[in-house]
Amino acid sequence: RSWFKISGGTPCTDSSYVGFAGLSQMPVFEHDNAGVKDFFFRKPDAVAKHWLGLGAFGWRLDAAQEIDHSWWREFRSALKPEFADAPLIGEVTATATDATDYLLGNELDGVMNYRFRADALGFAAGAPISDNNGAAGAPLTPSKLGHALTAIWEEYPQQAAAASFDLIDSHDTARALNSLSSSSDSGLTEPRQRLKLAALLQYTWVGAPMVLYGDEVAIDAPGSDPFPRAPYPWSDQSGSLSVYGPPDLGVLDFYTRLGQLRADLPVLRHGGFASLLTGDTSKASDDNDVYAFLRSGGADKPVIVVLNKGSSDEEASIPLQGAYPNGTTLQDMLVGGSYSVTGGSVSVKVSPRSGLVLVG
């Protein structure tokens, strides 16, 4: 009983457990209790060590903000000597919160990057977003996206940014497809294009893309929790596929290609980041919706990612900051096409709500 916070007398009779979010079914531990610490991480057979010893890859730590920083420091110190490569990823609220204090090398390795979620959805959106998890507001221009991504890159230690889970939705939020839909849309054609644009950013920016099951086939679920937890529309199960599906195999193919790009291009997994072009601040008039950034580092080939959030084709001249010399032919690894570097820049044409992934 000393392990828990209890309000009143006897639990489940005239009193109840103090619980997370006021739910007694989710009791809160007395984290300073020595027995609690022994059970979770201090003893040789503690829960955290036991499962890592059986082959678990790491820990995703729910609601990390509910536990004191000193506890997480002890947790890390107990695990890392034996499991140095096991990532400790914290959910520091399911909103766009600055989690820098947890990422200074003595607590968590990374976080559920809800800041990225707000940025990715804000850029991909065609209309203001109404969302209960920190992604609400007017759509982001290219320059605002560039500023927001640069802020994460500069505020978080780079190792932590690279280890964090980049998500565009989760079981706690509205589905990305729902967030990217508006009353002015006719059907889901444009929202699915926006979903793919957000996913392209998710797979090419710094960090590990974390996909909520079903996004890869554009599951459509209305509103916020619990609706995002809808079952996957398996064809061999009872019920109508039209409720949340049917699965969009074209979107699935797109996600498959994104995964292959990360496998084929190492710099997407561990390279650095720099903004190259924010079309709304450039001198040109036909690139207002274009954002381009560079992933580079070490001996890996640099990658230039170009995104067009607009509703029409746009042309842009992208300065490459010396990533490739003049005369280099860049190939688009996403849909095909080649482009030549001239005068330190590359000129491209980008389809609406789409993008390019260029490699020399």
Characteristic key phrases:
single chain, about 350 residues, alpha/beta, TIM Barrel, Immunoglobulin-like, 3 domains, eight-stranded antiparallel sheet, five-stranded parallel sheet, globular
Structural class: alpha/beta
Quote the beta fraction. 15-25%
Q: Detail the poorly predicted runs.
A: none
- Average of per-residue pLDDT values: 92
Just give the CATH class of the largest domain.
Alpha Beta
CATH architecture descriptor of the largest domain: Alpha-Beta Barrel
Proportion of helical residues: 25-40%
The shape, in one word, is: globular
Strand element count: 15
Count of spatially separate domains: 3
What does the oligomeric state look like here? single chain
Spatial sequence of strands, sheet with the most strands: 8-9-10-15-12-13-14-11
Elements, N to C (H/E): EEHHEHEEHHHEHHEHHEEEEEEEE
Radius of gyration: 23 Å
- What summary fits the major beta sheet? 8 strands, antiparallel
- CATH third-level topology of the largest domain: TIM Barrel
Alpha carbon gap, first and last residue: 63 Å
Briefly characterize the structure:
The protein has 360 residues and is an alpha/beta fold. It contains ten helices and 15 strands.
Q: Can you characterise this structure?
A:
This protein is α/β, with parallel strands linked by helices and 360 residues long. It folds into 3 domains: 1-30, no CATH class; 87-264, TIM Barrel; 272-359, Immunoglobulin-like (Sandwich), CATH 2.60.40. The chain is built from 10 helices and 15 strands. It has an 8-stranded antiparallel sheet. Strands 3-4-5-6-7 form a 5-stranded parallel sheet. Strands 1-2 form a two-stranded antiparallel ribbon. β13 (338-342) and β14 (345-350) form a beta hairpin. α4 packs antiparallel against α5, α4 (114-124) packs across α8 (189-204) and α8 (189-204) runs parallel beside α9. It is globular. The chain starts with 5 loop residues before the first strand and ends with a strand. The mean pLDDT is 92.
